[in-house]
Every structure is written in structure tokens, then in C-alpha cells.
Amino acid sequence: MYDYKLLEAFTAVIDNKGFDKAAQVLYITQSAVSQRIKQLEETLGQIILVRGTPPTPTEAGRKIIAHFNKVKLLESELSNDIEQNEVRSYTTVPIGLNADTLATWFFDAVGETILKNKILLDLHIDDQDETHRMLKDGDVAGCITTRDKAFQSCTCTYIGTMTYRMYCSAESYDKLFPDGLTTEALKDVPFIIYNDKDSLHLQMLKKAFGRTNFEYPKMYIPAVDQYLDAVLRGFGIGMMPDNQCMPLVERGLLKDVFAPHIIETPLYWHRWTLTSAPLDVLTKALTKKHLLI
Q: Which residue range forms the structural domain that includes residue 254?
């Protein structure tokens, strides 16, 4: 049986990226935090924390964090079950998802469920091809990802497909592509990319030209609204989802540069298999509302 005060201290150090902030959150001294982690490591018989800047968990440490996060979710539900005749308290559910999902359809899908069930979201943002790693490491209880295979002790459910196209501002199209879309023109057209994990533009190049080894200017803008703004201002071309851009296409503000080529990205909802009312209702909302994508 673990002493959960020790697990709490360890998780706090990771979540707050240091001993000092962890101590402030837990209302104990930094020395007490350090002693609790040392005691936990002695109990486990192995190192769980790499003491760097910031501190990071070892493989065993990640398993401890995953276990503790599950326990916190279960304890929150237990409290609500025991106090069923009183006002239901909030339950925090950590979820991993990509920025485009958050910016376009996620709140429409789960908003009513969150309000009705008093769920507090703790959202972790990463590329849709990477969010499943958060679930594997125990950082989140559920995630939206392109991975179609479930991890051990997790379930995987298809929720819909997001369609991406390569857009530019309608006003700048003739300037950027005076002779239409050619490999020669692309040499002088900036590609707007979300971050270094973003591969959607490479997928589009592969589909349109059969290769990705082009030389072209790159611009990185890791924010959905500013990314769209940059495209509209004519800074370059960028991959964006239809549910964000179609209204702007209809208004004549955006143009589909690589038409008729599209990139379809299937999305899946992964979650822990433990019995959890908040996870159950979120799963129902996400699978029921898939037509929003």
C-alpha cells in the first residue's frame, strides 16, 4: 500500500516543474517535499525522478504519476457518491488534444456535458499524432489522437475525420502562383507550419507531387487564430481544416491552393478503462457528436 502523500509530492514536483513551486502548492517546505520523494524512492527501491531543470520522471516515475492520477479521479467520484444527498462537487478530467480540435469543434461536442456533470477540464495541447503519448505516460485520462490502436488498460473509439486543405489568401493567390501551382513557384512561397511536429504540409506535398524533398521558405506560428490570420494577410500558405475555413472560402477570402487534393485525418478517442462517470459521459458526448467534425 502506497503512502499517497508521497505520491502527491512527487506528482506536484513534476506538474509544477520544480521543488519550490511544489512546496508552495502543497503548503509544506521544500525540504519536506524532497524528503517525501526520497522516502518514496526508498520504498520502491528505485529512482523515480531525474533531478534536472526542470525535474523529469523516469519510466518508473511515469507509472507512479499514471497511477496517482487514476486514484485522484476515483477519489473524486467516490466523494460525490458518498455525498449524493449534498451538492455534487467538481471533478477534474485531464485530456490531451490537438489545437485545431480545440479551436473548432471540441467545446460544441462536450460543452453541455461539462456543465451538466460539473466537469473541470485540464487540457493538454499537442500535435494529433503525439497526444496519445500523454495517455501512455499517465498525464491525461483521455486523449484525441490519430492512433487507431488502444493501449493496454485503455479503450479506443473512432469519433470522426477532419479534412485539411492547403489554403492561401484569395488576394495573394495570383501573386504567389502567377502560372498556377507549380514546383517552381513553391520555391518562393512561404509554408506556414504550426510547429516542428506538424507534418500536414509534407503529407500534402507527397499527395500532390509524389515527393517531399522541396526547398521552400518556412514560417512557424504555433497558435490557431494567429496561424489563420497570417494566411489571410498573405504571409504564405498553410494547412487548415475545412470546418475552420469553409466560411472564409465562401466569402472569397481564402483559396484552396492544392485543389482537388485533401488530407483526411481520422481521429480517435482513447481513455482509461476504469469505471468513471465523467469519462463515460465525455465518451458518449464525443462519439455522439462526431458529425460536428
A: 162-265
- Which of residues 22, 56, 86 is at a domain's end? 86
Cis, peptide link before residue 217, omega less than 30° from 0: no
d(CA 124, CA 145): 12
Q: Report the distance separating Cα 93 and Cα 141, nearest Å.
A: 7
Query: Which cell is 24 given?
Result: 508552495
Burial class (CB in 10 A: 0-12, 13-18, 19+), 174: exposed
The answer as to whether 106 is a domain residue is no
Query: Distance between CA atoms of 37 and 73, rounded to whole angstroms?
Result: 22
Please report how the helices 242-250 and 224-232 are oriented relative to each other, as an axis angle in degrees rounded to 10.
30
Encode pLDDT of 227-240 as tens digits: 999 999 999 999 99
CATH of the domain at 75: 1.10.10.10
- Antiparallel, parallel or unpaired: β 142-145 and 263-272: antiparallel
Read off the pLDDT of residues 118-150 as tens digits, 9 standing for 90 and up. 999 999 999 888 899 888 888 889 999 999 999
Give this prediction's pTM.
Answer: 0.78
